[in-house]
Automatic annotation (TrEMBL):
Record localization: Cytoplasm
Protein name as catalogued: Lysine--tRNA ligase
The keyword Cell division is annotated on this UniProt entry: no
InterPro entries, per the entry: Aa-tRNA-synt_II, aa-tRNA-synth_II, aa-tRNA-synth_II/BPL/LPL, Lys-tRNA-ligase_II, Lys-tRNA-ligase_II_N, Lys-tRNA-synth_II_C, NA-bd_OB-fold, NA-bd_OB_tRNA
Catalytic activity: tRNA(Lys) + L-lysine + ATP = L-lysyl-tRNA(Lys) + AMP + diphosphate
Region of interest: Disordered: 1-21
Residues reported to bind Mg(2+) 1: D423, E430
Domain Aminoacyl-transfer RNA synthetases class-II family profile: 201-506
Subunit annotation: Homodimer.
GO MF annotation, one: ATP binding
Enzyme Commission numbers on file: 6.1.1.6
Native source organism of the sequence: Labedella populi
Keyword field: Aminoacyl-tRNA synthetase, ATP-binding, Cytoplasm, Ligase, Magnesium, Metal-binding, Nucleotide-binding, Protein biosynthesis
Enzyme class: ligase
């Protein structure tokens, strides 16, 4: 047990009230002013420009963590960290200092080592939440806690607001709205940041090993496209025109393929002016990739590899352990099922691209399935989600979608009325989508015209006719496989968490 398990009076059994916070803030502001008034030079006071750190807390723990109780390392170090526990008792004070990665070490401030004036200043000026620098010999306390026997200390940054009670679980609202407090208080929050960074680095490494180039495409666009979604609209004063925050980078990445960048990808932000729930956020990170002379089967292989390599990087195994302790196997070859065949089996009636719209509407009505824009493909997709989606346990590629809901996808090479598109489902939600890309500019124009008709009938998610993109296609785009995957949803698959936990600073009301 640590010598600092008992918090100071400022860490009560319950979180402080607003009045108590206001009172504590006033006390801390007074301490800040005293520190500023007593500073010997511009680098001193409550916020010095630097402190003489020689080691990180983790480096000290890695080097000397196996010291026996009451054993000294005979080494002097200077470390800094946030005070997360504090106990002031007579001639000996204890503090637990926490680094940004959550690593902690004990600081022991004694009368014998620092003198009466310094000890009194410690007791008077140091609060929970302050960043403090300490220098002294590394030793193990009599209880076996790795410690710094402090010979010198100073405040590195004075905290004006009191920390929440670190012994209590932060509620979800606090975690999301004040992520900085979540990162201080919760190991899972810090681990989420590391996991996300590790996963994204793995994606880039997998692409690099296969000769893909990473590019950046515009986020402000004169015309939105590349997906069926409602855009955010803004206005450019310089150009005196309305612009759209992009809903997808697809149409620009395809321009890059036309220009000869045969293997290209982008990881960046997308924005969709739609609802927010456990799997959707108005602002989200997206990966899109395109491979010349590939198709939707080769891009499915690539997507599986990307995710499995990310799982290995994060957890060392294709079997990932979610935050609730559940294990989920991302290994092996993933299932590939037909949308129409799986829907027919689940519904107990054959459904094909030629099934009359009236039959689909009747089935949807019997099942209580609402279809916002009643076209053939919308009925098929909504019915598939109703009958099939909830039963998917393993990672599954759902193949071959209706043609009228996929305006940027090539028609199937052997099945009439469908396109070569898949959606990947993991944990019951859609993680990624992939296409054999439509590269015929004449057919692409026809598809855009049909989308424009939907828009005219009130479908706010329908695509617009993009003349500049069509002009690029007319210069010749090679056969291409393309895919898109939400980075936030990838983290959901790897961690078992909701989307607001996988985004560091999610948008909230």
């Amino acid at each position: 047990m640590s010598d600092t398990t008992s918090p100071s009076a400022s860490s009560a059994a319950a979180d402080p009230t607003e009045q108590e916070i206001t009172e504590q803030k006033a006390v801390r502001l007074a301490k800040r002013q005293r520190l500023l008034d007593e500073a010997a030079d511009a680098a001193g006071g409550a916020y010095p420009v630097s402190v003489p750190v020689t080691h990180s807390i983790r480096e000290v723990r890695d080097a000397y963590g196996d010291l026996a109780p009451d054993e000294s390392a005979g080494v002097t170090v200077g470390v800094a960290g946030r005070v997360v526990h504090l106990r002031n008792t007579g001639k000996l004070c204890f503090a637990s200092l926490q680094a940004g990665d959550g690593t902690r070490i004990q600081a022991m401030v004694s009368l014998a080592a620092v003198g009466e004036e310094s000890l009194a200043a410690w007791k008077d000026l140091v609060d929970l939440g302050d960043h403090v620098f300490v220098s002294g010999e590394v030793a193990s306390s009599r209880r076996g806690e790795l410690s710094i026997m402090v010979s010198e200390w100073r405040i590195a940054s004075k905290a004006i607001q009191p920390l929440p009670n670190l012994h209590n679980e932060l509620n979800e609202e606090t975690r999301v709205r004040s992520r900085y407090l979540d990162l201080i208080a919760r190991e899972q929050a810090r681990r989420n940041v590391v996991t996300r960074s590790t996963a994204v680095a793995s994606l880039r490494a997998t692409f690099a090993a296969r000769g893909f180039l990473e590019v950046e495409t515009p986020m402000l666009q004169v015309m939105h496209g590349g997906a069926s979604a409602r855009p955010f609209v803004t206005h450019s004063n310089a150009f005196d025109t309305d612009l759209y925050l992009r809903i997808a980078p697809e149409l620009y990445l395809k321009r890059a393929v036309v220009g000869g960048i045969d293997r290209v990808f982008e990881i960046n932000r997308n924005f969709r002016n739609e609802g927010a729930d456990s799997t959707h956020s108005p602002e989200f990170a997206m990966l899109e990739a395109y491979e010349s002379y590939g198709d939707y089967t080769s891009i499915a292989d690539l997507t599986q590899t990307l995710i499995q390599e990310a799982a290995l990087a994060v957890s060392g195994s294709h079997v990932v352990t979610w935050a609730d302790g559940t294990e989920y196997d991302l290994g092996g070859e993933w299932d590939r099922i037909s949308m129409f065949e799986s829907l027919s089996q689940a519904a107990g009636v054959e459904i094909t691209p030629d099934t009359p719209l009236e039959e689909l509407a009747a089935l949807a009505e019997r099942e209580g399935v609402e279809v916002p824009h009643p076209i053939h493909g919308k009925y098929v997709e909504e019915l598939w989600e109703h009958f099939v989606k909830g039963g998917l346990e393993r990672p599954t590629f759902v193949m071959d979608f209706p043609v009228d809901t996929s305006p940027l996808v090539r028609e199937h090479r052997s099945i009439a009325g469908v396109v070569e598109k898949w959606d990947l489902y993991i944990r019951g939600f859609e993680l990624a989508t992939g296409y054999s890309e439509l590269v015929d500019p004449v057919i692409q124009r026809e598809r855009f015209v049909e989308q424009a008709k939907l828009a005219a009938r009130g479908d706010v998610e329908a695509m617009r006719l993009d003349e500049e993109f069509l002009r690029a296609l007319e210069f010749g785009m090679p056969p291409t496989g393309g895919m898109g995957m939400g980075i936030d949803r990838l983290l959901m698959a790897l961690t078992g968490l909701g989307i607001r936990e996988t985004i560091l600073f999610p948008l909230v009301k």
